[in-house]
Amino acid sequence: MEGGREGGRPAELVAAQSCISRLEAALQLAQQREAASSAALVEAEAVARRSDELAMANLQLSQRLAESKAEMEMAAYYKKASGVCGELTEAKSRLEEQLMGLGSLLSASELRLADMAARAAAADVGGRGAVGSGEHAALAECRARAAESSIASEVERRCGAVLSSRALWPPALREEVEALEARLAAAEAERGMAVQRAEAAARAEGELREQLGTKTAELALLTQESAAAATAFAAQLQQLREALAESQARVAGLPDDLSRSRAREEASATIAAAVAAPRRHSNGGNAATAPSPPTATAVMTPKWQVQNRVGGGGLYNLDAAFAGDPGDGGNSSGGGDGSGSAGTRKGSGGPSNVDAVYMKNVLFKFLEAHLTNKVQERDMLLPAVATLLQVGRWVVLVP
Question: What domains are there in the chain, each with its CATH number?
Fold first, then answer.
């Protein structure tokens, strides 16, 4: 039984070590998964930083777009104001020219009127031209009014023609308007590009935010799984380490138990040999003088059933010793190695004092183990007690 335990301890130790190796491999795998989770976290942080950069670029583009819109509005206002100012300036110059022409016409009309007045005066002298001079004055006045109305209509016509055709504008005004239009076209193109960049940045930001959310969820799940796996692996590893320590302690205590058991067996064998030697000598003398009585057949009992590990002393073939005669000591010696007790009867028919002491010792140890609830020790003593009860023809009820 001890040999089986000694053989089982290394197997348990090997199994525990293999289990520890598996758990260490699993712990390594969990650490690798944790490293992968850390790498994923770093990548997610990089994605978040990139998203922040894109958001900042989008904000800057939006600001530039707003500035471009303001510049375009100012350019349109200046363009309109410059056009109106140029038109007004040109119209003013033309009106001035027309006014100068009208002034010259008025001067000519006045000269003609004076001439006509002189002629009328000369006609008055003759007495016949009074009525004719009045008609000439009325006709001159009508002509002056028609000239004024034609001048106003001509001014309006020429102003409309100047406003409708850019070719009639002054060169400086045309250059200024063309420069403003070029700036407006460039601002419009830049605005379109800024809008496209802003839309692309918004799309990229949305994609990055979606990736960041996915990565964050995966990272949280991996972190929870890694934490749970690490906790479970740590608990299993601690249990296996405790079991390994207990197994190592048991394995370390096995040599001491084995040495104590062997010492007890050697002591039992020595005592049994010392007791059996005088008996064999006395039985040999009696056998020379007296006829040998019929001997009973010895029933061999296996060693593991009658070995008293606690109390010491062998009980091999004790039932055969009680079944034989006093002079049959040689046939009742237990085992093939001569290490058991003789266990012979005396002439009175009872066991010897040494055998009685052995029997009492075994019974006391059995009762003590039973009362103190030492199950293993009690089970080990059961075969020896059964042998004693069979030899002594006793009936004992064990509770």
Answer: 2-222 (1.10.287), 291-392 (no CATH)
